[in-house]
Design a protein that fits this description.
Two copies of one chain form a homodimer. By secondary structure, chain A is α/β, with parallel strands linked by helices. Chain A has one domain: Alpha-Beta Barrel (TIM Barrel), CATH 3.20.20. Chain A is built from twelve helices and nine strands. In chain A, helix 7 links the parallel strand 6 and strand 7. The radius of gyration of chain A is 18 Å and the shape is globular. At the A-B interface, helix 8, helix 9, helix 10 and helix 12 of A face helix 8, helix 9, helix 10 and helix 12 of B.
């Protein structure tokens, strides 16, 4: 029995406005599969993307043009995009870490790219081999050239709610990084809780810091990890603040691959269940989505981390 | 790194009032262990309860006086209570299904009991062998006699948000059942989402129906299951409505025992993580709680369903 058979949904009665429609930014093919120890065959990736598009998802983060030395799981980016039947009305953004990545993305004919920045000094140095400021010296020419080439650019901001080395992250610092990405030409920010430590209160705090500094809530997406079980509660808090783009991963792909039960990205199925309950449109065929994640779990040889998928397809 | 190291929590800025303190009603020893295929030895149960009390939990639902034929896992209720070192300041409520159960509970010297009612006709017939009205003929004398004996009585209302046979459940029907339990002498209702289908919107709808009918929000507890990943988001919705008692199960015990990954009750650890983030007092020593659940998972021979426990103790 789905939530939709349980009566007509109604809006939360709190006086806050929930959005009437949410765009789901599906990150499973990129953020999920890049964490697999065994490389997924390109034809499986193509079928995964095709099934997700048929299930009604209209934003599919397809792959990353990071150097294959760093992420061998996505070394087939060119071949994937060449094989992919890109559908009308579906965006297939790709991650580009630098100018070389942008060259590859342009050659592959992509129309949407994303850059991946850090909100904290330590993570910038560890993950990007640059400081908090130095990362912009790398990104700004990439964003500028992407825009000149007519591409849309999304800016990921990681460690927005906490950092394993620095602990708490000041919302002002997150806003400073985010605004610099917007000023450089990003059309949207995805605020990432990379280590899963956000709670509803810190989500509201960071979103408020952005809107108080003049950033429109419509330019902000949220990207939660379920490490401590908070991802969906955090999403609810963000929706109540008016956020209309939510990142999620079909079947919850993206957990640590060497621990069967590890939890990663917010599962798209769990998100859709919440949105259905709240009466928020999303355009996704729930049954087709669950079927796709169950199929992918079989390909990966382990159960889906999504509670919905396990309950319905387990 | 715990959420508490991530900076001082602040209140949600929505204008709604969150409670300053929440009472966690720990149901793991009863609602969790009653689902185990293999009976847990009584000395393990006693140690589990003792560890939970030492971790600062002050309401521990200890066992059930249901007939051992139905729940052999809790057939040791008398022995458990006899062995248990009941601490000052800690309540040890027990479930009593009928007059015989109350006799046993009184003989064991309990001070808090709970009765288990259904919000729907079908579940009442299937689980309690009585209709929706007939269940009161069974409960009312139990509640009356418990009260006369000086006991506090809690009323569980199951299937408040959906029923596997009836689908949607009208909030008015839930309110009617709940009010009848309050009128009979229950001091508190625990509104149960027995099959995990509630979402934030239906939680608010049911709570509003109660308060609009004159029931104080302080007389209502919530009891969520994480079948579809919604339990914590539902809890957040309930807290924002002013609910101050939340049922949860240490380590998320209570999943279907024959499926390793099945999800059951809201995990107490995930709840504590949320409450810490929201700056809501609860009195629980988080590390001692996680350690207890990790210990219990070892006793049960399978990983804890709690995301927090898996992340910190896995």
């Amino acid at each position: 029995m789905g939530v939709r058979e349980l009566g007509l949904p109604e809006r939360l009665g709190s006086g806050e406005s929930l959005p009437s429609r949410v765009e789901i930014w599906e990150v499973g093919p990129r953020d999920g599969l890049q964490n697999e120890t065994e490389v997924v065959p390109v034809e499986v990736k193509v079928e995964f993307l095709d099934r997700l598009a048929r299930a009604g998802l209209t934003t599919l983060e397809a792959t990353s043009f990071v150097h294959p030395k760093w992420v061998p799981q996505l070394a087939d980016a060119e071949e994937l995009l060449a094989r992919l039947d890109r559908r009308d009305g579906v965006r297939y953004p790709v991650l580009v870490p630098n100018e070389r990545g942008l060259d590859r993305a342009l050659a592959a004919g992509v129309t949407h790219v994303a850059v991946f920045a850090s909100a904290t000094e330590t993570f910038a140095r560890r993950n990007l081999n640059s400081g908090l400021d130095a990362q912009f010296a790398m990104f700004e020419p990439v964003i500028a050239r992407a825009r000149e080439s007519g591409l849309d650019v999304r800016g990921y901001v990681s460690m927005c709610f906490g950092d394993p080395w620095e602990g708490a992250v000041a919302p002002e610092q997150v806003v400073a990084v985010g605004k610099r990405l917007l000023d450089a030409g990003c059309s949207q920010l995805s605020l990432g809780d990379t280590i899963g430590v956000a709670t509803a209160a810190s989500v509201e705090r960071v979103l408020d810091a952005f809107t108080e500094s003049g950033v429109a809530i419509g330019d902000l997406a949220v990207h939660f990890h379920d490490t401590y079980g908070q991802a969906l509660a955090n999403t609810l808090a963000a929706l109540r603040k008016g956020v209309t783009t939510v990142d999620s991963s079909a079947g919850g792909l993206g957990g640590c691959p060497y621990a069967e039960s590890a939890t990663g990205n917010l599962a798209t199925e769990d998100l859709v269940w919440l949105l259905d309950g709240l009466g928020i449109e999303h355009g996704v065929d729930f049954d087709a989505l669950v079927e796709t994640s169950a199929w992918m779990a079989t390909r990966l040889g382990r159960p889906s981390p999504s509670r919905v998928v396990r309950a319905l397809a387990g």
